[in-house]
Every structure is written in C-alpha cells, then in structure tokens.
Amino acid sequence: MTGPNLGAGAAGRAARPVQRRGLLWAVFVTVVILTALAFFAIGRLSGAPQQISDDGPDAGFARDMQVHHAQAVEMALIIRDTSTNEEIRAVAYDIATTQQHQKGQMFAWLQGWGLSQAGKGAPMAWMGAGSGDHGQSHGASAAAAPQSQMEGMATPEQMQALRAASGTEADRLFTDLMIRHHQGGVAMATAAVNLAETARVRDFAAGLVEAQSAEILALQDLRARL
What we know:
Ferritin
C-alpha cells in the first residue's frame, strides 16, 4: 500500500509545477492582452482632434480629395447611364463604387479628428504646407492650376457637354476627362504622400497614386480603341 501512495504523491508533486506554469502562462497572457487594450485605449484618447491641424496637409487632402472624388463619381454615373459600350460601363461602375467608398473613408477621418468637412482655406493651399526641399518637390504642380480650382477638375461646361453627348462621342469625352481627372488626382495624392503628417493619410495616398496611375494607362488604351 505504501508504494502506490508514494507514487501518487510523487505524481501529484510533479503535476503541481506544470499546473503552476500553466497558471503563470495564463496570467501572463491576460496581462499582455490587458496591456495591449490599455495602450489601444490610450492611443484612441491621445489621438485627440486638436492634434490634426485644421489647415494642415492631412485635413486639406481629406477635404479636397472628397470634392475631387465627387466629380469623378458624377462623371462615371453620367456615362454609365448613357453609354452602350460595356467596357466603358464597367470602368465607370468601378470608378463610381471605389471613389464613393473612399470619400466615405475621408469623411470619417475628419469626423474622427473633430474637424469640419469644409475648410477655411483655398482648395489645394495645403500643397504648399511644406518648407525647403520637402515642400518644393511638388511646388510646380501646385502652381500649375489656380488655387480656386483643383487639378484635373472638369469645368461646368465640360460636365454639361458630357451630359449632352451620346454614343462614341460621349465615350471619348468621358475617357478624355477622366484621364485628366486622374492625373490631377495623382498629383494631389503625391503631394499628400510627401506632406501628410499621419501614416494613415500617407499610406492611403500612396495607394491612390498606384491605383489611379494604373487606371490612367487602362483609360488611355481604351480611348485609343474607341
């Protein structure tokens, strides 16, 4: 009887360190999770609205690119309703859905920063926010268009012409306007990559440069085939 009892006691003593290690590991994991949650909460609190300047590049980009995207969506919906070219219609649908979604993202940024959707400064003024070589990298593009009009935007007359056009004429006008519109968008996004203070805006803008540059090439190929 003594042997089995001693064996059971030894097994119990051997099991206790394993149990203690398991308990310590569980406590460690819990502490790590709680610490991570605490830092997340601190990060949310430290991201106070006043940390993003109302007239800085992040807010300026979010506002101006929303306006820029809004016109692209409008042009895309116009041609999608009038064109009989299935490729044009597919491109238009993709532009409308993608840019409408992106508009929502930028709208949410401004809300999260506690800033108004409309800025006090002139459009594209934020593109001159840098100093020295950092800000001069796109000074030429910022000066290429009046401060009252964002780069690549179609004029009211061009928008009316698109609404009135039909058939191949409408398809060609749409591609011409959208190529120019995307080129302006790439210039604005490139400025944001270089000037934005937050990684969120820089990463978003870099993705926009890549996507719209690819779309420009696709639109140019499509235009050549019309």
